[in-house]
């Protein structure tokens, strides 16, 4: 029996032993002028360190057991939760099904999760995570009054960060389908993925979500593993001065551009909701192009990894990590360091030190909105 089913059954049992309650729940958090009841996170390794994936140590891919340095608390959504004034968001599979834990917010994210359903049982795809969100919201409606659950969901933020793993699969798995997709061009694949993300936003809206944040994909062509792995197949002119693979970044840029446009359309489609796009691609390129301005010394090599630029084998032991992670842009094969995430969190929250990271409004403004 999967742990997901166990969690749902525990929630149902709690309903059986205690009928629907209309007891008041805590009001939305008001730290930093925030009006946010909870944060619900969906995504891939950009939001999860591996502790939210069943049997991750046995089924992980690309030899990186620790895709972040320490815990989920070092990642962007947790850093933003702290700014909002929320406590640590529990992993979905780390909860026991209690109402209090659901009300505190949950991280449904799963390392190596994809937008497209890859047919893998080890990593939760976008659709699988959406189903988990739906089950969770239904439990809220069962355990609270309908009006209370509705208002709670409306005032919560739903945070989505997908796409990185889909592009990793595309570029690093030399399958016939990958080759056909690459031949059709950047816009073809990006359109497929962005349409799925737009449908996910609509799905959440229909589940009463009114504050939704979508994260773009980081500059994947600059990651240590991508630069190393494509070295033999890319021409010398395909690399820029920072060692980034240009054709990879061009495809990521196209995805982010289309997602940004789609968020604008969704805001028109749903005027009673606020959807925000956060452009971590341009944010990280600012850092990579001017590293010393932000306190970094190394923009190419992973802090935790083995081989050339730490790109051949990922972080299989925390003892492998460099002494000063804060001077590195990259933590492991594909993920930034906590220091980079902190800069991005500051920019997403306030627009400083990198302007216009999130649009049309900042996360602070999103959190301050009353719905």
Structure overview:
The protein is α/β, with parallel strands linked by helices and 371 residues long. It has one domain (27-219, 246-283, 336-368): Rossmann fold. Helices cover 43% and strands 9% of the residues. The protein has 14 helices and nine strands. It has helices at residues 3-17, 56-59, 76-84, 99-103, 126-143, 146-154, 164-172, 176-184, 186-206, 224-229, 246-269, 280-289, 338-350, 363-368, and strands at residues 39-43, 90-91, 106-107, 157-161, 211-215, 274-278, 298-302, 328-330, 358-359. Strands 2-3-1-4-5-6-9 form a seven-stranded mixed sheet. A two-stranded parallel sheet has the order 7-8. Strand 2 (90-91), helix 4 (99-103) and strand 3 form a beta-alpha-beta unit. Helix 1 (3-17) runs parallel beside helix 5 (126-143). The longest helix is centred in the C-terminal third of the chain and has 24 residues, at 246-269. Mean pLDDT is 86; it is low at 1-24. One of its GO terms (molecular function) is hydrolase activity, acting on ester bonds. InterPro entries: GDSL, GDSL_Est/Lipase, SGNH_hydro_sf. This is GDSL esterase/lipase. It comes from Phaseolus coccineus. Residues 1-18 form the signal peptide.
